[in-house]
Recover the amino acids of this structure.
């Protein structure tokens, strides 16, 4: 599984959109991009995943660059409950688990 | 239960003692994973099970660590002769066995403190 790079922390105001970037320049053609988040004192929670096309679900949107070397998790309207550490992880198509989790991005939401 | 359940939620043990950590996965999930997380760090993969077998044990830090899964359900992670560097949160997750895409569901973890 290739490595990802994320900013250590980001701040955003409540009720504003948040764009969380992730670089994965060594991604292979069969790697899926997964995002999880971890609220304080909780286990990680799945947010979204994608391969090539942009994806939307009830929690967030995932925008994937055309060359797939970067992606952005978009929270359309951040709430205080979105304050968490967000992890961007690559998972190979033939792999059923994530070997490498970085330190993620700590998202701070200001009221 | 509806989610992944781990017990105990907290464990304080003396250095040199053995500990057992338990994970009850979501019913029907054939894949089960153990990770550990040190303070402020990302997750470190330990081991995963497909059914009752563990195809990859390479993440186990030393031979003091072992894990088993019985009946394709409950899993136990055992740490023998605990050391202070074993202090961490141990997380268990489960998923359907679908290569490349499965959404993994995590428990709340067991916080292990070795004193």
């Amino acid at each position: 599984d290739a490595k990802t790079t994320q900013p250590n922390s980001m701040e955003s105001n409540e009720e504003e959109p948040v764009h969380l970037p992730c670089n994965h320049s060594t991604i292979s053609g069969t790697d899926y991009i997964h995002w999880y988040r971890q609220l304080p004192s909780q286990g990680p929670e799945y947010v979204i995943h994608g391969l090539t096309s942009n994806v939307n679900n009830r929690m967030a949107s995932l925008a994937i660059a055309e060359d797939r070397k970067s992606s952005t998790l978009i929270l359309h309207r951040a709430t205080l409950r979105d304050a968490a550490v967000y992890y961007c992880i690559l998972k190979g198509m033939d792999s059923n688990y994530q070997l490498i989790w970085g330190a993620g991005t700590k998202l701070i939401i200001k009221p | 239960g509806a989610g992944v359940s781990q017990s105990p939620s907290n464990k304080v043990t003396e250095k040199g003692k053995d500990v057992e950590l338990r994970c009850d996965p979501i019913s029907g999930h054939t894949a089960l994973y153990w990770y550990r997380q040190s303070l402020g760090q990302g997750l470190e993969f330990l081991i995963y099970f497909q059914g009752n077998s563990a195809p990859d044990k390479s993440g186990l830090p030393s031979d003091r660590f072992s894990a088993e899964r019985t009946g394709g359900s409950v899993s136990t992670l055992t740490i023998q002769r605990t050391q202070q560097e074993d202090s961490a949160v141990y997380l268990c997750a489960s998923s359907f066995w679908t290569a490349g895409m499965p959404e993994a569901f995590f428990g709340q973890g067991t916080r292990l403190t070795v004193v």
